[in-house]
């Protein structure tokens, strides 16, 4: 019985952070995973969920050199009516800019906020405040 609960806790702890993959970062992934794990499996679930959430969150975060490049580049800001949300695609009329030596990400500036985007889907990966 106890092994079944532990297995369920591990499975749920690993799957729940994946559902929030687009919003995840290392810190938020760890906290979210720990919270869900604690609800499902108590203290052991919190530990397992925290570790799983942190590793998934780290995978979702663009590398430091990408963020540094985006911060230092100067591009005009484009106005869009709706809020820019991580996980949601940008409108097709928003121009994306390439990042040298990295084809996994592109960036733009929307509503005076720098945004890192997945080029193929145009989904927002990170908004830099």
UniProtKB/TrEMBL annotation:
Signal peptide: 1-22
Organism superkingdom: Bacteria
Classification via Pfam families: DUF1236
InterPro entries (UniProt xref): DUF1236
Keywords: Signal
Name of this protein: DUF1236 domain-containing protein
UniProt organism field: Azorhizobium caulinodans (strain ATCC 43989 / DSM 5975 / JCM 20966 / LMG 6465 / NBRC 14845 / NCIMB 13405 / ORS 571)
């Amino acid at each position: 019985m106890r092994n079944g609960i532990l297995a369920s806790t591990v499975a749920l702890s690993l799957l729940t952070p994946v559902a929030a993959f687009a919003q995840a970062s290392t810190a938020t992934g760890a906290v979210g995973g720990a919270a869900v794990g604690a609800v499902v499996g108590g203290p052991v679930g919190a530990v397992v969920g925290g570790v799983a959430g942190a590793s998934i969150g780290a995978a979702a975060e663009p590398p430091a050199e990408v963020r540094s490049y985006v911060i230092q580049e100067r591009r005009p800001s484009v106005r869009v009516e709706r809020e820019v949300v991580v996980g949601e695609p940008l409108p097709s009329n928003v121009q994306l800019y390439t990042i040298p030596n990295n084809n996994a990400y592109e960036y733009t500036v929307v509503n005076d906020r720098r945004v890192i985007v997945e080029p193929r889907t145009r989904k927002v990966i990170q908004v830099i405040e």
